[in-house]
Amino acid sequence: MTWVITVIENIRSARAQMNVPAGSKIPMLVTQFDEAARAAWEANEGMIKKLARVVSLDQVESFPKGCASVAAPGASFGLPLAEIIDVDAEKARLEKNLGKLAKELGGLRGRLNNPKFIASAPDEVVVEARANLSLREEEEATIREALSRLQELG
Fold it and tell me: Residue 77's closest CA among 54, 47, 44, 46?
């Protein structure tokens, strides 16, 4: 069941990062499928397809251009997204978000690197700024990962 949850989460994550419309059901490809992964897929195929919004699974020798890779233990999946999303528009959207985020990160890092701010601000304000910085850094990593996936597509 852990494998099934991992597969569903990874597919959903890839779909969200690529801004695939939530209601669209998409095909999925697989290049590598060990026996344990195949057995887990076959035992839970209906649930995986429903929860990950996948319509089919086809085994291929290699992924065609325009596939976003989705890793799972014992299997290599691919989502053919080049026909489903506008790759260039999605790249532009993510790069714009990354630019805005860079400004926020610069401001937060500047405050937290300023000894006067640390010394004079109330402890809860400093803790909040550090927490906010951590969240923004995670967001930045997620956006960079999404951009990396988009590079795979085209």
Answer: 54
